[in-house]
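# nightly structure sweep
# worker-07 picked up a monomer target from the shared queue
# config: single-sequence mode, recycle default, output format = structure tokens
# input follows
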Amino acid sequence: MQRLNHGLNILGIILGAAVILYGLFLFFSERALPPLLVALAVLIVGPLEDRLKARVARSSATQEEKAARTDLADKATSAAFLLLLLVAIAL
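# output follows
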């Protein structure tokens, strides 16, 4: 199970990087805004969310506060992700 989890984690990183790089490529080569918004959305729910959760975990807050802050980070990044996707498909 641990190998499968590790493999899926690596796959997620590779696919996320591919989406981000291709989105940036399309934005700069064709001036297409939707791919840029999708790339930003992936950055938000990927590396940014991970950093926010790691920062909470390292904080001196109580376990209850950490849980609440982690939940807040999860909900805020999910909302931003969905908003960017909505704008991307609306364009």
